[in-house]
Amino acid sequence: MKHFANILLFLCLISCGGPKGNWEDSRVILVSIDGLRGDILEDPELEIKYPNLFRLMELGESCGNVQTVFPSLTYPSHTSMITGVMPDKHGIVNNRPFIPENNFVDWYWYADSIKVPTLITQAKKKGLISLGVSWPVSVGAEMDWMLPEIKSVSDTISTVDLVRKHDRPETFLESAKVRGVVPEDGNPTGFGRDLLLHEVFMDAFHWKAPHLSLYHMIETDLVQHEFGKGSDESIHAFMFMDSLLGNIIALLDEMNLWESTTLIVTGDHGFRNYEKQINLNKLFLDNGWLAIKDGSISSDWKVVCMGSGGSAFHSLKNPLDKEFKKKVRLLLSKQDGFEILEQRHMNGTLWAPLKTDFLLMAKNKFGFVRSLDQPFILEKSGGSHGGDPRRKILKTGYIAAGRNVQKRTIESMSITDIAFKISDLLDLDLKN
Length: 432
Prior knowledge:
Elements: H1 2-16, E1 27-33, H2 46-49, H3 51-59, E2 61-67, H4 74-83, H5 87-90, H6 119-125, E3 130-133, E4 145-147, H7 159-166, H8 171-179, H9 190-208, E5 212-217, H10 219-227, H11 232-254, E6 261-266, E7 272-278, H12 280-286, E8 292-293, E9 296-297, E10 303-308, E11 311-316, H13 322-333, E12 338-341, H14 343-346, E13 358-362, E14 365-368, E15 377-384, E16 396-402, E17 408-409, E18 413-414, H15 417-425
Parallel strand pairs: 1-5, 1-6, 2-17, 2-18, 3-4, 3-5, 7-14
Antiparallel strand pairs: 2-16, 6-16, 7-15, 8-9, 10-11, 11-13, 12-13
Helix pairs in contact: 1-8, 4-15, 9-11, 10-11
């Protein structure tokens, strides 16, 4: 009897309340597979390993040479996907705001940090129904149905409870909980988290017929960070995500939605492998230019580094202190594993949207970290991104199939092109 009551409650929560689209209307599903490298689409074994990616490529258009933003990180990239502009214009210049005193634990969670109109805001203006599941920089966004991406950095609240606090409508996560998708207690991680998010996405899409759906798959990024690109673990992670993508394709098949629906699958950046980690904050600590108090960077810091994998951004507390700046540059110039980029690079191709006094780029086999307690150089292998987006290794991929898409191979494109593609498909007024 209790099970039956739960089913009724779930059906009421998800199918009765809130806005709902019309299945005859045009719609777009944008699926972001975090860390989807462009070379994956060029894998000669693509059909065997990733049959659903292969099927979409056979049906529509594809590109394995999509240039992302700089720094090539998740949050700036995803924001460019839905705004059509680079980080220097939309304002999400890194995954994390530059706040040394909190050890950079916060992320750009909140949508009001975006400085320009998005596909979300333009869809809202047109009266379209939107759905977002784990989309970066979406807390507080004007979406009808949303589970935002946000992570607890405190012991006082779990990530699940934090998501529940910011979901839209308030019944969204609760409905998934009743269904048994979201556990009563605990904080799902790894593939379990992606499976949870997938179930929530599939339920919401089926019941609400949104015009614009934004869905972010996560674990492929984390696995590549830990084990490196091309590892057996990363291949298995992409196979798992491919199977989830297959569920979406099967639903579109079953409901005969291909004439009204465009399915776009993309990534946010490629990946590079490293063998050594560079922790420049340890170098600054050893020189007395950075201090730790109660486990955090003290407010009297003189220079601090925010490592971003393939690149690192340095700020001086007093950028007008030219003598100290010379000392920092001299110290950096004596180290191995990276190169110092000049101001002309910061104002040119690499944009350097985050205010920085020194912009460093990691050499092959090296990667930057933000640690405070790790040695200056640590022999540790893994994968990173965040470097020069012009490099082939950091390019991502793009596939689109369905409504208004013809079969073709695109030689090259920018990640910003995706926003305008979707804007055209939904007849939105995105003019950033």
